[in-house]
Amino acid sequence: MQPSTIFAILSVLAPFAAAHCCHVINENNECRDGSWGTPCCGQGGCNIFCCNCDGGCRSDNRKLASRATIDGAADADAFSVADVDGTGNLTLAQYTQYMGATEDDEIYVNWFKQHDKNGDGVVTPDEVRLN
């Protein structure tokens, strides 16, 4: 692999190296504190990617949770990685692929629909957060 190719890959992935996302830890949608993910495991509101959650992640380690918003991924950075065709619109297929879910996973489909505020079938950068 060429050094320029490696550099390009690392520059795309670098913003996520310190990213703190609040995903479920198993197929039962369980969070680290034993609660159920909805689908995210954030203390407060999260972006559509379950990252950059207000108050950090629900966990037994409250110090780590309080730092999560400082180390959180920027909404725009996660959106640009998930938007693989660069259209500025995130489809359900792109979203579920990014999240590692299937397009018929009811939890992620409902989460996507909540963020698709105007009901046009895509999520735009201004729809990434619910609040």
TrEMBL record:
* Annotated ranges, domain EF-hand: 103-131
An annotated Gene Ontology molecular function: calcium ion binding
Taxonomic source organism: Lasiodiplodia theobromae
User: Which top-rank group of organisms is this from?
Assistant: Eukaryota
Signal peptide feature range: 1-19
UniProt keyword annotations, A-Z = Calcium, Signal
Q: What is this protein called?
A: Protein Diedel
Q: Which InterPro entries match?
A: EF-hand-dom_pair, EF_Hand_1_Ca_BS, EF_hand_dom
Q: In the UniProt record, does the keyword Transmembrane occur?
A: no
